Amino acid sequence: MKYIYIFILATTLLSCKNTSEKEVISEIKPEINSEINTIVPDTIDDGMMLLGVVNRDGLRNELFLDWYQENFKEHVLDSTTIEILAPKLKDVSIKVFMGTWCSDSQREVPALYKILDAAKFDYTKLTMVAVSHDKDTPDHLEKGLDILYVPTIIIYKGDKEIGRYVEYAQENFEKDLLAIINEVGYKNSYAE
Questions:
Q1: 3-state secondary structure string across 39-81
Q2: How far apart are CA 78 and CA 99, in angstroms?
Q3: Nearest-angstrom CA–CA distance, 87 and 91
Q4: Burial of 182 (0-12, 13-18, 19+ CB in 10 A)
């Protein structure tokens, strides 16, 4: 009888753990049913790449870690702008489309994480999607979002897109994000 009680208790605890892990993943990607941090062959560059929903853990995989760490370290924070930006980030969510094969993504995505860390951003409001060289995913996560260049960082207030940062900064990363959030007519490099 004692062993049955221990078995039931252990099963309950393990079930709770699996449920909470699913809840965390669903917070990261509420409308997505795919796996996270999927690594696939890169048929163009003869290496490997992430494809689909990813997070920082995926970018820290040994395949991508060198460029992630180097570019995270290299980004010099604009601390003055981050002080202004931090409280405003509470009102937005961010969706990033990037390619682990893309030098602009390799530079900008680690810098974004460094900025968001400094601003104490709520990462449940960040969705990160790795795309193929064709700027697509098997689950069509890019559908209807006009992703032509990567990285494309889309800022939302509620369900409304208020702007996007594409490939590189106009002034600096922090000031560009602040301009988007302040809705002062920011135009990315490819905006008409």
A1: EEEECCCCEEEEEEEECHHHHCCCCCHHHHHHHHHHCCCCHHH
A2: 25
A3: 8
A4: middle
Total residue count of the chain as it appears in this document: 192
User: Which one-letter amino acid corresponds to residue 55?
Assistant: N
Give CA 131 to chain center in angstroms.
12
Rounded to the nearest 10 degrees, the angle between the axes of helix 173-182 and helix 79-89 is 40
Residue partners of 173: CB distance under 8 A and separation at least 6: 75, 78, 108, 111, 112, 115, 165
> What 3-state class would DSSP assign to 101?
coil
pTM beyond 0.85: no
DSSP secondary structure letter of residue 123: G
pLDDT in tens, 33-80: 458 999 999 999 999 999 999 999 999 999 999 999 999 999 999 999
**In Å, how far from its chain's centre is CA 138?**
17
